[in-house]
Amino acid sequence: MHATAHLLARTDFPRLHRRAIETLQVNLGYRCNQSCVHCHVNAGPNRIEEMTGETVDAVVDFLAASPAIATIDLTGGAPELNRNFRRLVIAARARGLRVIDRCNLTVLEEPGLDDLAAFLAAHRVEIVASLPCYLEENVERQRGKGVFEASLKGLRRLNALGYGRGERELALNLVYNPQGAALPPAQAALETAYKLHLGERYGIVFDRLFTLANMPIQRFGSMLISKGQFNAYMATLRAAHRDENLDQVMCRSLISVDWQGYLYDCDFNQQLGLALPGEGGPRLHITDATVDLLEGLPIRVADHCYGCTAGQGSSCGGALEADTAPAPSCAG
């Protein structure tokens, strides 16, 4: 695999500082039941990195000491494959936190996880589910054969439990990623197209669609290098940069923790090894951190940050700016 960190290190991206921390994003490990082309984590079935129970306890302790944090955002890999996933969900909900599960949908159909969807509904966990297109051939090109049908089964299971019908604590939001080296289309218009197609053809409902730009790191970055498209894609991101998106980028109010408990400005920096420095070493561990220590610190930036500010912007919550372009298709 081609590394991209050295290609992104030199940058003129604007300097940023963190504001009050509202969200703790927890990467529970890189093991996943899928291997997607666009994956910025390089997750897959053969990855063995997994957050231990001891580190989960440290996360819970950090949350207990940080009453201003309102949201915990669980990601991976497939976070649900971590044996401590449910324990962390229960602990966070007991504190009254909003819990988001970044679910790939097919994990709901994995052997031994038949009760997972019911668990998520019972604990009022919001779901952000990856479905990179509403067309079967495009999904399977990006994620593998059989993934589209398994994703539909997962969505129907969630709909039957009340997800996707307008209730915030049972929110079901889908995520779109472009097929290749291009910016996402207009989010609002594409959401309309998704709802129309999935509703009319499959009887599936959901709340919102988030459009995310593909980051030039890990598996997707390596693919860009292999195809000779890396420099052109970076030029596209830089040319589409909007200063007005800087105020809303996720790293201003979020901290990311990796499977070992080390802290980063975001999940993308985590994959590039751009950790928050500690007083006694190059990486700051969650057991040595407080929100007072973290707030106001400069954010580590590199050229990949243009992926968050290009065009309508891109974050864990989708586009940063409204775009009124005509209705697009996810086919391109």
Question: What are its keywords?
Answer:
single chain, 332 residues, alpha/beta, TIM Barrel, 8-stranded mixed beta sheet, 12 helices, 31% helix, globular
Task: Report what the structure shows.
With 332 residues, the chain is an alpha/beta fold. The chain has one domain (5-309): Aldolase class I (TIM Barrel, Alpha-Beta Barrel). The protein has helices at 5-8, 53-64, 85-94, 116-122, 136-143, 147-160, 187-202, 218-226, 230-239, 267-272, 291-294, 306-309, and strands spanning 23-27, 71-75, 98-103, 126-130, 172-176, 208-211, 254-257, 263-264. The protein has an 8-stranded mixed sheet with strand order 6-5-4-3-2-1-7-8. The longest helix is centred in the middle third of the chain and has 16 residues, at 187-202. The model has no long low-confidence stretch (mean pLDDT 90).
